[in-house]
UniProtKB/TrEMBL annotation:
Belongs to the RNA methyltransferase RsmE family. One of its GO terms (biological process) is rRNA base methylation. Transmembrane segments: none annotated. It is found in: Cytoplasm. This is Ribosomal RNA small subunit methyltransferase E. It catalyses: uridine(1498) in 16S rRNA + S-adenosyl-L-methionine = N(3)-methyluridine(1498) in 16S rRNA + S-adenosyl-L-homocysteine + H(+). SUPFAM superfamilies: alpha/beta knot, PUA domain-like. Residues 18-64 form the Ribosomal RNA small subunit methyltransferase E PUA-like domain. The keyword Transferase applies.
Length: 246
């Protein structure tokens, strides 16, 4: 069934109003008709099973037949702190992280980050692009929540944010003990928030790892192979998704 995100202000007791680009998509691309069913989601975890009731010039009116909580969200908020990669890698990371259940993606400037975003206008355009990708991935994967792509933060800010999570881990090529990693991931059950710190292409500087440990963030190994920055976060998110899925 087709799925669309709508603003909560467009929801009444019995009807929903769709506006904007989705109107053209429903009318002229999908060519849906009055009486056809679709799902409208408020982006905050509630799905509305609806029937198309009326086409207006710039709006579509839906009749609500059922309200229900979206069942596609994980019980814990997974927050990905991603060392800013070069080129278009962040677009892939955002898309796949949302598909795997990430609650929020936080781009982080680290010591070995190659990209330097000093132009605020360019940075804002990138954030808007990443947020649009997150919304598209949320639609595709049936998420009940549109994950936020946070503004870019410093490593110190990211450490503070990660330390406030119930559990935070830092995949690190110099860490050892895969059984300890498995045990730690299993401890994620019952946690409300889990932070995942991922380094950029050059990896973490040693003092960055030390600072993370001082704030209770635990270095872990993901195995004997060194993973690219765009692979490491998705690997741990996949592991957590399968562990937490209900």
């Amino acid at each position: 069934m087709q799925r669309f995100y709508i603003e909560s202000t467009n929801i009444s007791d019995t009807t929903i109003r769709i506006e904007g680009a989705d109107v053209n998509h429903i009318k002229n691309v999908l060519r849906m008709k009055i009486g056809e069913k679709l799902i409208a989601c408020d982006g905050q975890g509630i799905d509305y099973c609806c029937i198309i009731a009326e086409f207006e010039k710039d709006n579509i009116i839906l009749s609500i037949s059922e309200r229900k909580k979206t069942d596609t969200e994980l019980p814990a908020k997974l927050i990905l702190f991603q060392g800013l990669p070069k080129k278009d890698k962040m677009e892939l990371i955002v898309q796949k992280a949302v598909e795997l259940g990430a609650y929020e993606i936080v781009p982080v400037m680290m010591k070995r980050t190659i990209v330097k975003l000093e132009d605020k206008k360019k940075e804002q355009k990138k954030l808007e692009r990443w947020q649009a990708i997150a919304e598209g991935a949320a639609k595709q994967s049936g998420r009940g929540f549109i994950p936020r792509v946070h503004e870019i933060v410093s490593y110190q800010e990211a450490i503070k944010m990660a330390s406030e999570c119930d559990l935070s881990i830092l995949p690190y090529e110099c860490a050892s003990g895969i059984n300890e990693t498995r045990a730690l991931i299993n401890q994620s059950k019952g946690k409300d928030s889990i932070g995942i710190m991922i380094g950029p292409e050059g990896g973490f500087a040693e003092d960055e790892v030390d600072l993370a440990k001082e704030h209770g963030i635990i270095p872990v190994t993901l195995g004997k192979r060194i993973l690219r920055t765009e692979t490491a976060g998705l690997t741990i998110l996949s592991y957590l998704m399968l562990t937490l899925e209900e």
